[in-house]
Each structure stands twice: as C-alpha cells, then as structure tokens.
User: Fold this.
Amino acid sequence: MTMKTILKMSVIASALLAANVYAQTELKVGFNEAYNSPIYHGMVKASQELEKQSGGELTMRIYEGGQLGSVHEMLEQVSLGEIDMSMQVFGGYAQYVPELGALETAYIVNDFDHLKKILASEWGMKVRGELEDNFQLKPIDSWYFGVRQTTSNRAINSIDDMKGLKLRTPNAKALIDYAKATSAIPSPIAYAEVYLALQTNAVDGQENPIPSIEAMKFYEVQKYLAMTNHVVQDQTISINSDSWNDLSEQEQQWLVAALKAGGDEAERLINADTEKHLALFKEAGVTVTYPDLEPFRAAMKPYYAALDKQYGENFTQTLIDAK
Assistant:
C-alpha cells in the first residue's frame, strides 16, 4: 500500500468520523392547533430552545394546524413511527387505554396542577406504561390547554338554570354525561355548525374553553357565559418509543428541557389570552356568571359510580384524591 493510498484512506476515515460526530437529528412533530395559537408559539419556543441547547445537533420540524391529519391520526402515526411526536388531551388517549377517558369526565380534575399530579400518580404511571409498552407512545410532557366553560342564551346562576337547556356538546360520552347530569339536553353538533345553531336558537348553549369561544365568535350569538370549569384540558406530548431510545441521554435531556420551556410559554399566552378574551366578551355585552359548582359536582356522582363499576372500586376517588 503506497503512502498516497494510506493518506487518502486517512482523509476518508477522518471525514466519516467528523460526519458521525456532527450528525444531526431532526424530529418530525405534528399537532392540531393552528398557526399563531398559544400552543403553536409554545412549540416554536421549544424548537428554538432545542436547537440552541444542542448546538443544532437535535432539531424539530413542526407541522401545525392538522397538516398531517386529525389528532387521532397523528397519534397513530407516532405509534407506527411515521412521525416522531404529537400531542392530544390526555383523556383523548382513551382510543388506546379506555380508562383515560375518565379525565374528560366533569369535575374529576380540579385544575392543571391537579392534572399533573394525576399524571405523576401510580395510576398515571401505569397508563403511561401501557401506552409505551403496547403502542410505542411515550408521554414526555403535558402542557396547559384550557378549561371548558358554558355559554347560553339565558343566565346560568345555578344548576337549576341548566334544566331543559339545549346544550351543544361534541359527540363525546363524557361531555354528553355532563349535560345530562345537569338536566340539560345534550345536542351533539359538528363544531363548524355550532355558530349557526346558536344564532338560530336550534340550541340554547354550548361548552368550550374560552379561547375557542373567542376564535369561533360564539360570544356574538350568546349573551351569557357561566364559569362552570367542568373539564380541565391539557396537551400531552408523546414521542415514538424507538425515536426516544435512539436519542442519547444528553439529547433526551435537551428535548425535555426544551419542551418545558415551550409549555411555560404556551401557558403564559393562554392565561393572558383568557383575560383578554373575557374583557372582549364583556365589551360585547356578555354577562359572566359564577354559579356555585358544588351541586354540579354532586350531580356527577352517578357517572363516577359507573366508572368505578367499570374500572374498579374507588377508581374515580383515587383520581380526585391524587396528590
């Protein structure tokens, strides 16, 4: 072997080593929230933090606004390894682990801090393990998303005012149960059709987080907003298990830290928007009421009993008592 050949091979080996050392990994992330939403801005912040911390070694390419499919379709793509990460309300993961649907049941979750305690509880770790072991979905963070409230064409000062109210809900059992429990009449209608249904009094009210009420302009055709605080929602971010395991420990730490920064930014924006939107509603003539919620909670007890029968004695109380 000539000296020239040896030098050439040395150069090639050095180039391959350098390529390996400076290899870049790009994570493909899809989510449903639209461009310019708090969740979008949170994910942009996370992406920037990740690139900064890793020196460009680990990056994210984000696809907002459901570009890659519905929330359920994107989770399935993560499960199959077609994309690396996506997010969905943790209760929405019930398509994989049915008992997670309990988190969408009214008044089981008090606030976001309580929800985080549930996620970190023995039960939370069990269902997260099932998602990872059986579906390759590894939850690695949870972001605040909002609290569902109730708008109507008449004042709701107490649970008695819910009686006979034709309440639009999604076609979701837990939210239909909320309507039934309060003696309202659940009326599942497609989200895109709700404004017209409210405008024409086909229904008397609807329930959604405040940012959604603003985005869909429901406040233009509803003059009352009751702070019923019936469902607290998050966005649980999951990564494909193989994608996670392919990362070094250092890369995993960078990713977790970046997502924490993004979640803090999203929560800050959601809280700021909530105050801004409430002020807008009031300026538009909406009356905001604060009914006593204890009777609402009491009305849900038969539905908790049904969950206990399905998933085990004291199932719902264990979630309610999570510390």
User: Anything to note?
Assistant: The mean pLDDT is 93.
